[in-house]
């Protein structure tokens, strides 16, 4: 009986050590989601093919809703005017884990503007999303691609099921700001935006130099 008790204690200690080791490994391998820093992006952009290899994300699930243009409706006249149109809706969802790629950059009113694609089928600015650097240094959504045959797109933060989640182009905090961004203003006056996010993993390496003094004789 004593042997079994000792054996169980040893097994329990071994499992605890393994669990702790696994936790340390997983925590060390996790990448943090951070807003894209303009200074850091400049350093990346100077490296050959680094911008092309970088993957970016949105800070919040984004839904873009496209409604078919009414000008495509058909008209029939039989004493009264009868219009016929199928109300076609196109919903585009960009989740927080959808990887994007920066395909172009320019300036808008003196502020850097990054063009990001979230689709393999898109490699041009006309189908990409624009993120402009706001006054606080954060790249925020300012441009959404239009689609032929559809009305102007509607942008929602997280879900299009609630019209209160709809975002509109506006100044973030001050009328003196250079560019409009998509903003959702809450009842308490706080504003929410769609920010450009990167995943960053810090690897801390420590080098130790050991010197053994010979002593004094």
Roughly how many Å apart are the termini?
60 Å
> Strand content of the residues, in percent?
35-45%
Question: What is the number of strand segments?
Answer: 15
Strand order of the largest sheet: 6-3-11-12-13-14
Describe what this molecule looks like in 3D.
This protein has about 220 residues and is an alpha+beta fold. It has one domain. It is about 20% helix and about 35% strand. The protein is built from 3 helices and 15 strands. The chain has a 6-stranded antiparallel sheet, with no helix packed on it. Strands 7-8-9-10 form a 4-stranded antiparallel sheet. A 3-stranded antiparallel sheet has the order 1-15-2, with no helix packed on it. Strand 9 and strand 10 (about 140-145) form a beta hairpin.
């Amino acid at each position: 009986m004593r042997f079994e008790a000792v054996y169980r204690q040893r097994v329990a200690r071994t499992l605890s050590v393994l669990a702790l080791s696994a936790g340390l490994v997983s925590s060390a391998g996790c990448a943090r989601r951070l807003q894209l820093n303009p200074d850091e992006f400049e350093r990346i952009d100077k490296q050959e093919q680094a911008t092309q290899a970088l993957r970016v994300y949105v800070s919040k699930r984004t839904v873009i809703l496209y409604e078919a243009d009414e000008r495509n409706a058909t008209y029939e006249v039989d004493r009264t005017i009868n219009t016929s149109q199928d109300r076609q809706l196109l919903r585009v969802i960009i989740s927080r884990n959808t990887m994007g790629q920066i395909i172009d950059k320019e300036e808008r009113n003196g502020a850097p503007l990054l063009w990001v694609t979230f689709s393999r089928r898109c490699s041009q600015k006309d189908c990409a999303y624009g993120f402009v650097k706001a006054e606080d240094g954060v790249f925020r959504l300012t441009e959404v691609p239009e689609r032929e045959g559809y009305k102007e797109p509607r942008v929602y933060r997280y879900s299009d099921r609630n019209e209160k989640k709809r975002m509109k182009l506006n100044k973030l905090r001050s009328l003196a700001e250079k560019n409009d961004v998509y903003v959702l203003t809450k009842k308490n006056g706080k504003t929410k935006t769609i920010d450009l996010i990167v995943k960053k993993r810090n690897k801390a390496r420590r080098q130790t130099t050991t010197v053994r003094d010979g002593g004094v004789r």
